[in-house]
Design goal:
five-stranded antiparallel β-sheet, alpha+beta, Nuclear Transport Factor 2, Chain: A, 8 helices
Length: 211
């Protein structure tokens, strides 16, 4: 009888946990989430502005603390690897290695961009809720008279939103990085391990290519 009671309690607790996670939803609206991320990042860049250009380690630390936690690196990895993200072409270990390397090089990319920060401002575009499971929020960065639109595609991760892809000035970075990775695989003769080790996503090249 006691065993049955314990089993019943265990099932009840597990059911509550599963149901709770299944119906959990971000408490913030998509634009509120993006505004929070942008505000915190810009506040930190402003606070350390004088130190940024000569301290790459500090820049990477700022990115790691204020942007990296909000990136859905698994989803971004699947987008960039494309067909190579399937079991037919890669192992779980290879995908994990790619995700780690990709995350680190993204931090390098964003760090280089933020090192040039010079007190830019931004405005948020009106947001329309279309009911999509991957809502998009767009903000315009203003830099020396130039307006740079950046759109963030989000993923509902249960307790909070995360960024799964980024579009800069109409350029889908996930797609451009996918093309870069496919080219890297080709250069390495189809050897996926070598391609993963050598892949360096280049955001500036992706954007400049479309100019």
């Amino acid at each position: 009888m006691k065993t049955l009671v314990r089993q019943t309690l265990a099932v009840s607790v597990l059911s509550t946990m599963v149901m709770g996670s299944a119906f959990a939803a971000p408490s913030e609206t998509p634009p509120a989430f993006i505004k929070k991320v942008a505000d915190h990042l810009i506040a930190r860049l402003k606070a350390d502005h004088a130190k940024l250009q000569n301290n790459p380690a500090l820049v990477k630390s700022i990115v790691r603390q204020n942007l990296d936690p909000y990136i859905d690196s698994q989803a971004f990895t699947r987008i960039v690897m494309g067909t190579y993200a399937t079991n037919q072409y890669s192992t779980a270990a290879q995908r994990a290695k790619f995700e780690h390397n990709f995350r680190e090089t993204l931090i390098e990319n964003y760090g280089s961009a933020f090192a040039k920060y010079s007190n830019q401002t931004y405005t948020m575009r009106p947001y329309k809720d279309t009911g999509s499971k991957n809502p998009v929020v767009t903000i315009d960065f203003h830099n020396n008279g130039e307006k740079i639109p950046v759109s963030f595609q989000l993923a509902d991760k249960g307790s909070q939103w995360k960024i799964r892809n980024i579009n800069v000035s109409g350029i889908d970075l996930g797609l451009q990085f996918r093309n870069q990775f496919a080219a890297t695989v080709k250069r390495n003769g189809g050897n996926l391990d070598k391609a993963i080790a050598n892949f360096k996503p280049d955001a500036e090249a992706a954007i400049d290519k479309k100019k």
